[in-house]
Specification:
alpha/beta; 6 helices; two-stranded antiparallel sheet
Amino acid sequence: MLSQKFKLAVVCSSNQNRSMEAHNFLVKKGFKVRSFGSGNQVKLPGTAADSPNVYDFNTTYQEMYDDLSSKDRNLYTQNGILHMLDRNRRIKQRPERFQSCPDHFDIVITCEERVYDQCIEELNNREASSDELGSQSHIINIEIHDNHEEATIGAFLICDLCSMLHSSDDLDNEIDEILQEFESRCQRPVLHTTLFY
């Protein structure tokens, strides 16, 4: 079973679009996955580019859905935000912040370089687990623009990468070759680092 090979996290900025699309897709493919945001707040598009809707990570997807429905149901239906929130509330109750989760993940996939940097900073600041060096974790970034179409494409790419990683018999020694092959197939830059925490 796929879920037993490694613990997987997918992280974007607000745990709304890219990470949740990938979360939804990966679960359907049998992976054990959790999704997170790395920002300080959850931000969703507003009526203008300079006025986003801002929520705390403790706000449920249902509360966001209800709030935006009451503000302008037509706008948030047309731009796909209500559809996205509807999907999200079917997966889990609320967005989660990566920095607030103490769990160890074997693989952390991020959806933009800024999020990759935030996750590395967070993991570098954590105390090592009970063994001397801590447990190994691979942090991988695939650049995915934050829009609905790119989130869907990104979910397929992330699933493809996870399948490649899952098929490895010696991930720690084969990951560089796997990532090179994946990068040439998807034609997107991939960042990777290994941390012990």
